[in-house]
What we know:
Layout: E1 3-7, H1 18-27, E2 32-35, H2 44-50, E3 56-68, E4 74-82, H3 89-115, H4 122-129, H5 135-144, H6 151-156, E5 172-173, H7 174-183, E6 187-190, H8 204-210, E7 217-221, H9 227-240, E8 243-246, H10 266-275
Parallel strand pairs: 1-2, 2-3, 3-5, 6-7, 7-8
Antiparallel strand pairs: 3-4, 4-6
Helix pairs in contact: 1-2, 3-4
Amino acid sequence: MLIDLHTHSTASDGTDSPAELVHAASAAGLSVVALTDHDTTSGWDEAAAAVPPGLTLVRGMELSCTGRGEDGEPVPVHLLAYLFDPENEAFAAERARLRGERVTRLRAIAENMAADGLPIDPDAVLASAGAAAGRPHLGRALIDAGYVPDMNAAFAGPLATSGKYYVEKVDTPLEAAIQMIAAAGGVSVLAHARARARGRILDLDHIRELTPLGLGGVEVHHMDHSHDDTVVMADLAAELDLIVTGSSDYHGTNKTVKLGEYTTAPDQYDRIVAAARP
């Protein structure tokens, strides 16, 4: 039984439509796949309508948050939310606010690039990105214009968080996000918390502080975790009795990772299902 609980479609920054993604998941031999687009549930209905026999779809989302970094300063963090009620008023309002932040930030970065002579049309990028606009949409525009060869080069260069074009957005504090997900009946799992290649990382003590607030689990097995950091996260999950997940973080052709390259054990998936409140 192969279970992949972190994937993205064209509803955010993946390259497969929601329908294409569930068919690709089935073709890859998955038994369970979660659709976890950034700050949006807009792909759920299309994915659900296209699920092939033998595949279970988990409705999820990846929330843009902020936590406390190892240096004590705020750091961007992603939080996976599973099996929550999308109609919950407070959580729906926060998702809408985050999507507005995404659009504002993307336009600002695009305008910074265009003003510096990079081949970027802010309006065209936003038109292609939709409500869950993200930096990969800018990366795709840079690739299409021949400015960079691939997404890795885009994020190492013009899209780097330390670069001159980068603009911050106001994300949800982790504490508030975990409590909103719980209030909506869902289960929260901290995504790739030791992804050092992405920049500064979350303080482990902050994760410990989140557990009493309702944090459900941590993503242990991920392409951006070194062996040593995988061990650190597994040990922390055991210490705190948190659910352990492994996921591809699939983005279609925007990343080299394949569906099912990292997976979640069936008993850990069962813990997520049991913890969710209908």
